[in-house]
Design a protein that fits this description.
By secondary structure, this protein is α+β, with helices and mostly antiparallel strands. Helices cover about 40% and strands about 25% of the residues. Helix 8 runs antiparallel to helix 9 and helix 8 packs parallel to helix 12. The structure holds ligand C2E and calcium ion (2 copies).
Length: about 950
């Protein structure tokens, strides 16, 4: 008993393979509406025949023959050809229609014969003549009109429909469909024409690729017309089954070829009784099929078949010469346009600086042309993505997930229309269902991708694709074609539209442009980085010295600029800001000054930060600049810098000193010009700061001198041989009231050098601390010496030593001072430190703390040059001081200037109130002496009484008894 079980499900890939390898025809059988002879080409004897010959001849011709008499008999015994020699000219590739005479059993009036070579055997296929009477001209003229139609139709489907309409009318098959292959070999019905009794059923539906398996498609490429006259008829068998060469007959080109059981039941399931199918080729490939279905058995006449074959060829020609080229040209032009557009966008972008905004605008513009759901570039660990119209920079895990796709394959390209199934969801791109991505590894890893969303539309299939009936019969599994062709809607889940060659080309183009762009930007960035470091100051972004140098080199090449002015700018007391308000404030100040300087120049000028608080503004001129012009520029800079800077609600005011030199570009020597501008700047400083000074010849002389002096001063400090002069202080009774040590330097070439000069030099050249220590050392040793000379020595007051503010700022000052006193056995009350008000300006609390400590230890403090600095009378009481020295400029002029007199009077009164000793210094004349005396100033110092004396003179005068 045969037990049969049927299951219907999606086929597995192995089953699909099995399907594909199955024979598409039943070997050794033919359709029973005709019969077949296989004839030896040499002897013309029949070597094989179909077992329905006798029954058919009986039926059609009413003649009786014995099947067994056929084998080995001479062909001509049964058939007589009108042109016998045609038998020797047969082709392997197509059948030839052979006209039959009426003088044998198989008459030309009753039978049609078509012949071809199967291997070397002659195959003769006979079918009964039908009474259909076709006008062969009809179809030809119809085809002619098709071609003219081509010139006017804009829509392919209109053309397809016209063709099926005409073929339906011509052949009278109930249904004629044009079936076009898609890239996955599923087919879409693009035109359908039916007889008045039928209705359109399949138009627009897709048929799964499995419906016409691969080996069938291969055959259809060579055998372009097949028909099955009656699906229900049992096939006739070829006898014997094997030819004399030991092989079965190759039936590839046989018109009577029978169909496989599979195909037969497929057609039965569709309710079709007879079919014909015509191949439409595009080049060597199958473009599609024209399929004819009939609801009753139908044998196409030889004539019709021939006409259809020609139609198929003609239509293939039409496809090849009009439709495909037209489509290709359309696609090619649109692709070329797209490429040109993308190219233009990137060549524009190449001119811009790399930024997130640039990526955004490039992606937006590109997508205007290519219009994908997603388009993105991953560069430098950032994923710049455009989703629809929305631009975003996605997070690192998106980049990682996309990069991971390439982790396990060497390919630089990945394409999928079911992304999530293939690699899993990409973070932040979960709604991307299809992805086509390309990767580059140079200059650095970057990726370009386009993506598609899940498609919302469903595909309508003529039956479910990839389903098959598995028939289990006698414990054997067998595949059967599906039985349902009912409309089946496939929902595409998590899948995008398929990627087409066009997409790949677009991505390739985008990728190439992007690669070009990125490698350019990458090198630019690298170069910028190098350049930036080498040419710019990182804090302010201003040019640096190197930049200035190359800027000047460039100016020399360019004949427009004839003169340049160097404005050497040094901020006054900038160190104070840094020291007392913090580096952060200092930096802010420098940045805001950079901006102000930038605002003072034209594009052809250059603002440079040389170092710390030194700037250069280089002004370029096309002709020698007017001095007034230079002065105006200098004033503008001074006033701009002098504008208050707001820092945490505190206003900060800083002033500059400017040194200016204008040079002819021809004679320009970079280092020399810079040096001269620097010298001029020092002149401005010396002249009181917050001003400009234009370089002149004296500057150069004094500079040269200073250079030598500085060098010699260094040696001098190192040697430690310091000379001190001593100037006594006296009371109104001209009694000694202490003494002041004043540093002296006799230079071997320049002679006497003023302490005003060399102290300043020492301060600027970082020599002051060493110099100061030497002075203290020398003063103490002199004092110790005097005490040894005169043990009962009374100087009437302490020995005053001038201390420069920079000296005091040194942490070790206190320690060093006390150590020196200790070493020379100097009592602390014998020493007084003379400081100026600027000490308190610099570091108010620290200085006060240190001086207070020294004061508590017995060292007295004197405030020197009082009146010239900033501190007001009112703050005197806060300072740790014992004595105030009224500056000699007040004293010298108080007799003439009433204001000054009042001032001196106030100072003296205040000091008396605060219990501070008050000294009038620089007293040269009697009148000053008397005025001070009258105002109650008890201590005076000056040439009036004594000039500073050398140690020997001083010792002789005041020490030796
Ligand atoms: P200073 O501390 O105000 O010193 C007084 C200056 O006035 C001395 O000039 C002195 O010679 C001068 N002088 C004294 N009496 C008269 C007078 O009646 N008329 C005039 N016109 N001048 C008089 P010197 O010695 O040239 O010192 C100049 C400045 O150099 C000093 O001003 C002081 O600030 C600085 N200096 C001198 N020696 C030292 C030192 O050992 N260390 C430091 N840090 N600075 C010193
Ligand atoms: Ca002094
Ligand atoms: Ca003084």
């Amino acid at each position: 008993m045969n037990e049969q079980q049927i299951e219907t499900r999606k086929i597995t890939s192995e089953e699909a393979e099995q399907c594909a390898s199955e024979q598409i025809q039943v070997i050794g059988s033919i359709q029973p509406h005709g019969f077949q002879f296989i004839v030896d080409p040499q002897s013309f004897r029949i070597v094989q025949y179909s077992n329905n010959v006798s029954s058919l001849i009986k039926k059609i011709s009413n003649k009786k023959i014995n099947d067994h008499a056929l084998l080995g008999s001479d062909l001509h015994q049964w058939v007589s050809f009108q042109a016998k020699k045609e038998l020797t000219k047969l082709s392997k590739k197509h059948s030839t229609h052979l006209a039959l005479a009426d003088d044998t059993i198989i008459k030309g009036s009753q039978w049609e014969c078509s012949a071809h070579l199967s291997n070397s055997w002659i195959s003769l296929e006979f079918s009964p003549k039908t009474n259909e009477n076709f006008d062969s001209q009809t179809l030809v003229s119809q085809l002619d009109s098709m071609v003219s139609l081509l010139k006017v139709v804009h829509d392919e489907s209109e053309l397809f429909q016209t063709i099926t309409d005409q073929l339906q009318t011509y052949t009278q098959y109930d249904r004629v469909m044009m079936y076009r292959y898609l890239p996955d070999w599923s087919g879409e019905v693009v035109a359908e024409s039916v007889s008045p009794l039928e209705s359109v059923k399949y138009l627009g539906l897709r048929f799964p690729a499995e419906d016409i398996p691969k080996q069938a498609r291969e055959l259809y490429k060579i055998n372009t017309l097949r028909y099955f006259a009656n699906v229900d008829a049992e096939p006739a068998q070829l006898t014997p089954s094997i030819l004399p060469d030991g092989k079965p007959l190759d039936q590839s080109f046989s018109a009577l070829r029978s169909m496989s059981e599979m195909h037969r039941s497929y057609l039965k399931n569709m309710g079709v009784k007879a079919t014909l199918s015509l191949s439409i080729k595009e080049g060597d490939e199958l473009w599609g099929l024209i399929v004819f279905h009939h609801n009753a058995p139908k044998i196409p006449s030889h004539h019709v078949a021939a006409q259809l074959r020609i139609t198929g060829q003609l239509f293939s020609e039409i496809i090849n010469s009009y439709i495909t080229p037209a489509f290709n040209i359309k696609e090619l032009t649109s692709l070329m346009n797209t490429q040109a557009y993308i190219e233009a966008i990137f060549s524009q972008a190449k001119k811009a600086d790399l930024s997130h905004g640039l990526f955004e605008s490039v992606l937006q513009k590109v997508n205007n042309a290519i219009n994908y759901d997603f388009i993105g570039i991953i560069y430098n660990q950032k994923c710049y993505t455009l989703k629809g119209d929305v631009f975003s920079i996605l997070k690192q895990d998106t980049c990682d997930a996309l990069a991971n796709i390439f982790l396990n394959n060497d390919a630089l390209c990945f394409e999928s229309d079911q992304l999530h199934e293939d690699v899993g969801a990409i973070p932040d791109l979960e709604d991307m269902a299809g992805l086509s991505i390309m990767k580059a590894q140079s200059p650095i890893d970057f990726f370009v991708f386009i993506g598609k969303k899940e498609i919302a539309k469903t595909i309508e299939w003529g039956g479910a694709p990839s389903t098959v009936n598995i028939v289990i019969k006698d414990n054997k599994r067998q595949l059967e074609p599906r039985s349902s062709f009912a409309l089946w809607r496939e929902k595409m889940e998590g899948q995008s539209d398929e990627w087409q060659t066009k997409d790949t080309k677009i991505l390739q183009c985008l990728f190439n442009e992007c690669k070009d762009f990125i490698s350019l930007k990458h090198t630019q960035l690298l170069m910028n980085k190098l350049e930036k470091g080498a040419y710019y100051d990182p804090l302010t972004g201003l040019a640096n010295r190197t930049h200035l140098k190359s800027f000047i080199e460039n100016i020399k090449q360019n004949d427009e600029t004839q003169f340049v002015s160097f404005f050497f700018i040094d901020l006054d007391n900038f160190k104070d800001v840094n020291d007392f308000m913090g580096h952060e404030t200092g930096d802010k100040l420098l940045i805001s000054i950079s901006q102000r300087l930038n605002a003072c120049v034209r594009p052809s000028d250059l603002v440079v930060r040389l170092s710390g608080d030194e700037f250069i503004v280089l002004f370029t001129h096309q002709s020698a600049p007017e001095i007034a012009h230079i002065e105006a520029l200098a004033e503008k800079i001074i006033s701009r810098i002098g504008e208050p800077v707001l820092n945490n609600a505190n206003t900060l005011v800083i002033t500059p000193s400017l040194g200016i030199i204008t040079e002819k570009v021809e004679d320009l020597n970079f280092n020399e010009s810079l040096k001269r501008a620097d010298i001029a700047m020092y002149s401005a400083k010396n002249a009181g700061k917050n001003r400009y000074h234009i370089f002149n010849d004296q500057d150069q002389d004094s500079f040269n001198q200073k250079t030598i002096l500085t060098m010699d001063l260094r040696k001098h400090v190192a040697n430690g041989d310091m000379t001190l002069y001593y100037q006594p202080k006296i009371d109104t009774n001209k009694q000694l009231k202490g003494v002041e040590a004043l540093a002296r330097w006799h230079h071997p070439t320049f002679g006497f050098v003023s302490p005003d000069v060399f102290i300043t030099l020492a301060e600027k050249n970082n020599l002051i601390y060493g110099l100061g220590v030497n002075i203290i050392e020398k003063a103490c040793s002199d004092l110790a010496h005097w005490h040894s000379v005169n043990p009962t020595l009374d100087l009437g007051g302490p020995l005053s030593i001038n201390i420069s503010p920079t000296q005091l700022a040194e942490r070790s000052f206190e320690e060093d001072l006390l150590a020196i006193l200790e070493r020379h056995h100097i009592e602390r009350k014998w020493i007084r430190l003379e400081i100026t008000e600027s000490v308190f300006m610099k570091n108010y609390t620290t200085s006060i703390d240190m001086l207070s400590r020294l004061q508590q230890q017995g060292i007295s403090i004197s405030l020197d040059d009082f009146g010239t600095g900033y501190s007001s009378l009112n703050s005197l009481w806060k300072l740790p001081i014992d004595e105030v020295k009224i500056d000699k400029s007040f004293i010298a002029n108080m007799s003439q200037d009433n204001n000054l007199f009042t001032m001196v009077e106030s100072i003296i009164q205040l000091c008396q109130k605060l219990n501070l000793e008050v000294v009038g210094e620089g007293v040269e004349r009697n009148i000053e002496f008397n005025l001070l005396k009258g105002l109650g100033c008890n201590t005076i110092q000056g040439y009036y009484f004594s000039k500073p004396l050398d140690p020997t003179r001083f010792q002789q005068t005041y020490i030796e008894e």
